[in-house]
Amino acid sequence: MYLIAICLYDGRYFIFIRSDERSTIFDALQRSGLGKGEVVINQSAAIREMVGERMRGANVETTDSLTFLKVQGYRTQVFSGNNQRVSKDEAFRKEKEIKELFPEIPTYVTYNAPFWKLRVGDFRSHEEAYHMMRLLMGAFPKYGKEMYIVREEIKIPLN
Questions:
Q1: CA–CA separation, 106 vs 68, rounded Å?
Q2: By the 8 A CB rule, do 130 and 121 touch?
Q3: How many C-beta atoms surround the C-beta of residue 82 within 10 A?
Q4: CA 34/CA 19 separation, integer angstroms
Q5: Per-residue pLDDT for 18 more than 90?
Q6: pTM surpassing 0.70?
Q7: Taking residues 99-111, what's their average pLDDT?
Q8: DSSP per-residue string spanning the chain
Q9: Cα angle at 129 between 124 and 130, to 5 degrees?
């Protein structure tokens, strides 16, 4: 069985194919069988070579058993502080509180001297990030004045 998704993002096409078999989608389509029609695929060799390439390349990052596509997107910034004595602890405390209510949403605590920042989510659109910001503001009204949307490189899971 195959799952195929073709996405246009930032002026480039990405083809995602998931298969339970070792053969390609082209092999499966051209395989004959009782009660099946005949499929002839005319394509350049470059297209056939692209199949399966989603797991390699400059925009792909692999960690342990997970593979991510890195693209420009949006996150909700919840906290930014430069008080060296308390900002780190505050960023991790807020991350823990957010994870308790939204365990499925990824969180990122970063340090870029002199700022500790907490950002939430991997959103492809500003609207998705804004929706999460509104949910966070409802759940944590005291954080509301610090929250805003930032454009950043995000990670989209491929497996």
A1: 13
A2: no
A3: 10
A4: 22
A5: no
A6: no
A7: 95
A8: -EEEEEEEETTEEEEEEEESSSS-HHHHHH---TT---------HHHHHHTTGGGSSTTEEEETTEEEEEEEEEEEEEEEE--TTTHHHHHHHHHHHHHHH-TTS-EEEEEETTEEEEEEEEESSHHHHHHHHHHHHHH-GGGGGG-EEEEEEEEEE--
A9: 135
Average pLDDT over residues 45-72: 76
Q: Are 156 and 71 in contact (CB under 8 A)?
A: yes
- Which tokens in the block code for residue 5? 């998704």
Handedness of CA 98, 100, 101, 106 (dihedral sign): positive
In which residue are the tokens 């994870």 written?
99
CA 30, CA 68: separation in Å to the nearest integer? 31
Burial 88-123 (b: 16+ CB within 10 A, else e): eeebeebbeebeeebeebebbeeeeeeebbbbbbbb
93: Cα within 13 Å, side-chain hemisphere: 9
